[in-house]
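Reviewer comment 2.1 asked that we show a complete input and output for one of the modelled complexes. We chose the magnesium ion case, as it is the one discussed in the main text.
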Amino acid sequence: MNFDHLFKADIFTVGQCVIIKYARLSPDRIRPEGRRGMSGRSDCLAALPGRNSETIAAISTPYGTGGIGIIRISGPEAFSVAEKIFRGRKKISEIRSHSVVHGRIIDPVDGQMVDEVLLVKMDAPRTFTGEDTIEINCHGGIVVLRRVLSLVLRHGARAAAPGEFTKRAFMNGRIDLAQAEAVIDLINSKTEEGSRAAAAQLQGKLSEKIRSARRKLIELIAHIEAAIEYPEEDIEDITGDEVLAGIAKVREELMETAQGSSNGRLLREGMTVAIIGKPNAGKSSLLNALSGSDRAIVTDIPGTTRDIIEEYVNIRGIPVRFLDTAGIRTTDDPVEAIGVERARAAAEEAELVIIVLDAQTGITDEDREVLKTSRDKKAIVMINKLDIADDLVVEAMKEQAAALGNMPVVVASVADGTGMDDLADKIGELAAGGQVSANSEILVTNARHMQLIEDAIAHLDSARSAFEGRMPLDLVTIDIRDAAEALGQITGESVGEDVVNEIFSRFCLGK
Ligand SMILES: Nc1nc2c(ncn2[C@@H]2O[C@H](COP(=O)(O)OP(=O)(O)O)[C@@H](O)[C@H]2O)c(=O)[nH]1
Ligand SMILES: [Mg+2]
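Response of the prediction step:
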C-alpha cells in the first residue's frame, strides 16, 4: 500500500499552536458526499500563549562609545511610548511603517532635549519580534543612551530581559526554537564557518529537515492507527514491510543530519590542542607563529615557560585553543615542577596534542618520556628546527617517529615557516576526520538538538525491535510517537498523545 495517495497529514505551527491539516487524496476514496474529506481542516490543538501585553525596551548595541547606539522598543505600547518623548515633523502615528524619520528626544517633564535622533517605525507583524517596534538611533555614548532608555522606561516600557526580543520572535511564531537558538549561535560564532552554519540554521534549514522527518513519522502513526481503529473501513492493512521501511527511512535521514553534528559542534565550540615537548624544542615559538603574536616568551634557556599560555587560532575554519606548556622533564626546581605537572594535565585535557621534537638533538630519553604522556591521545609529531638540522638526523627521526605508532609526522621549522601549512592541514584532518567543510549546509551545532536527534533515533530503534518482536502495533506507535515528540522539541512544536488522538478524532472516514 502506498499511503501517500490515501491521505496526507500536514502539521505546522503558528506561534505555539499546532495546526493539523489533512485531506484525503485518493480519488477512489472520495465518495460523492465525501468532498468534505478533501477540504482540509485546521484545528488549533494547543492554546496560544498569552499575547505579550508588556512593552519591552533595551539598548541593543554594545555598551561603550560608538558612532551610534540603538534603543529598541517592542510591544503594543511601543508607538505610544515613542509618541511621548519624540518630536519630529510628523507624529509617530503619521509615520509610514518601515521608514526612518529625523527628530529629537525630549524629556516631557522639563522640555529638555536629550538627543537628536533617527527613529525607525515598524508595524507588527513584519518585525523581528512580530510586534510593533521602534528603534531609536541615538548618538553613541553610554550616558546619552542611558538617558534615552530611562525616558522610555518612565513612559510605559519595561527593561527587556536578556534574549527577550528573540524569545518574543519565537512566541509570536516569527521563528521556531531552533532558529531562536541559531540567533545566539550566530552572535557567538568564532569563525566564518561557524557563523555560516548558524546562519543556515537561522534560515530554518535544520528546522525544515526536522519538521519533514517528524511529519513522516506522524503520517506513519496515522496510517498504523487508522488500520487498527477502523478495521471496518476498507483501508488496506499497512504491511509490516511498509512500517519498517518508513521507520528506516526517517532513521537514515536523522543519521545523516546527525553526521554533521560533530563538525557543527567543532565549528562552534572548537577544540583544545596542547603543545608539548621537552624544554627548548620550540613549543612557545610554535604558539607565537600560529597566533601571529609574541604571546609566549621564547628564549634559549630551557625551562622558560612555567605556566600554561593559551591562544585561540582559526585553523581551517575550526576555532582551536592552543595551550603552550612547560617543557616536560625531571627537575629539582619546585616552580618548574608545578609547570611540568600542569603540562601533563593539559595534555590529558586536550583533544589533540602536538609533540614537538628538536631536530638538533634527535630523539632523546626526555622525548620518550613525553611520548609516553600522550600514548592514548590523538597526536601529531612535529620535528622542528629543520633549518639547522642535519638531513640524516631528520630522516632517522622520521623513521623512529613512524615506528612509534600511527601518528602523523610533520617536518617543520618554526623559524622559517616550513611545514606550518602541513601542520594546519593535519590538525584539521585529525579534528574532524577530514570532514569539516565550509559548504556543509546543515550542521547541528547545538548540543540540545543533537541529544534530541539521538533520542529520536533511539526511539525508532526500539520501535523497530518492538515490531520485529511482534509486539502489538499500538505499542510500536508509542515508540514512533516518542521519536516524533523528541523532534518536535527541537523546533518547539511538540506532539503529545492528545495531538495524535485529535488527528484521529477528526479523521474523515466518511461517517
Ligand atoms: N633555528 C631554529 N630555532 C628555533 C626554531 N624554533 C625555536 N627555535 C629556538 O629554540 C629556542 C627555544 O624555543 P622556545 O620556543 O622557547 O622553546 P620551548 O622551550 O619549547 O617553548 C629559542 O631560542 C628559539 O628561537 C626553529 O625552527 N629553528
Ligand atoms: Mg616555552
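Residues 204-261+446-506 form a domain with the Four Helix Bundle (Hemerythrin (Met), subunit A) fold (CATH 1.20.120.430). We note this here for comparison with the apo prediction described in Section 3.2.
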